[in-house]
Amino acid sequence: MTVVILESTITCPHCGHAEAETMPTDACQFFYECKGCGALLKPKKGDCCVFCSYGSVKCPPIQQHKPCCG
């Protein structure tokens, strides 16, 4: 059984602001507004959500080696 980490620190590629956030377990998060500069972050090409692109921990489905909703 895999332990799923639900907290990930998102780091803005524009201003470098880092914020710890709790990831949803029942949906992908496609957008995230940076609390430092207000930039709207979207997943990078090939990633399913903002946590997979900018987070310190990938989203729960990816951690469990399952398909994500992206």
Secondary-structure blueprint:
Elements: E1 7-11, E2 18-22, E3 32-33, E4 40-41, H1 50-54, H2 60-63
Antiparallel strand pairs: 1-2, 3-4
What does it look like?
- This protein is α+β, with helices and mostly antiparallel strands and 70 residues long.
- Helix content is 13%, strand content 20%.
- It has helices spanning 50-54, 60-63; strands at residues 7-11, 18-22, 32-33, 40-41.
- The strands form 2 sheets. A two-stranded antiparallel ribbon has the order 1-2.
- The chain is globular, with a radius of gyration of 12 Å.
- Class by alpha and beta content: alpha+beta
Helix content: 10-25%
Low-confidence stretches: none
Shape: globular
Largest sheet: 2 strands, antiparallel
Compute the number of helices: 2
Strand order of the largest sheet: 1-2
Task: Please provide the count of β strands.
Answer: 4
- SSE ordering: EEEEHH
Percent in strands: 15-25%
Kindly report the average pLDDT value. Answer: 91
N-C termini distance: 24 Å
Could you give a quick summary of the protein structure above?
By secondary structure, this protein is α+β, with helices and mostly antiparallel strands. It is built from two helices and four strands. The radius of gyration is 12 Å and the shape is globular.
Name the features.
70 residues, alpha+beta, two-stranded antiparallel sheet
